[in-house]
Amino acid sequence: xxxxxxxxxxxxxxxxxxxxxxxxxxxxxxxxxxxxxxxxxxxxxxxxxxxxxxxxxxxxxxxxxxxxxxxxxxxxxxxxxxxxxxxxxxxxxxxxxxxxxxxxxxxxxxxxxxxxxxxxxxxxxxxxxxxxxxxxxxxxxxxxxxxxxxxxxxxxxxxxxxxxxxxxxxxxxxxxxxxxxxxxxxxxxxxxxxxxxxxxxxxxxxx
Length: 207
Fold this sequence. Notes:
Layout: H1 8-11, E1 12-16, E2 22-26, H2 28-45, E3 53-55, E4 61-66, E5 78-87, E6 92-95, H3 98-110, E7 113-115, E8 118-120, E9 131-136, E10 139-140, H4 151-160, E11 169-174, E12 195-205
């Protein structure tokens, strides 16, 4: 189990940057506790009960939204699945679903996102392809790190897809340390931000 809110004052280290801004570095255990609280609040506000929520060793939480009723996923199967990436405020930052992506583009065309008086392109995806991964006897073989998926994405899939058939869906919530960490990503994922993914298997190719 992770540590509690011990030595909170020590956990915050202020580092002055060259541009005069201040970067707040938070002790990883304290940040994990903050993320866990934020995720628990999100789940509670979304109406999920404790009995519906799963949890991995690294604090990734998940809810099986729909177990699906079509093809099952077995060892060596190749699986296509769609996804929606979002903040805990339900702001979508990425998706493989064209209809959703086009709606986001239209929205931001009509409501430009402005930072420091400059308009910023916040959703630039031009192609929409489901992710393609093979399921093996040891679980999902998902690369992480540079050029791969964030660790929490891979772990969340490994923990949940055994419960799903095609047509199903799972919601995975990822603490910031297993997501984009202290750097964040893009406009919507600031440093130390927990995120969520909805994952839906849409096709299985049997081997």
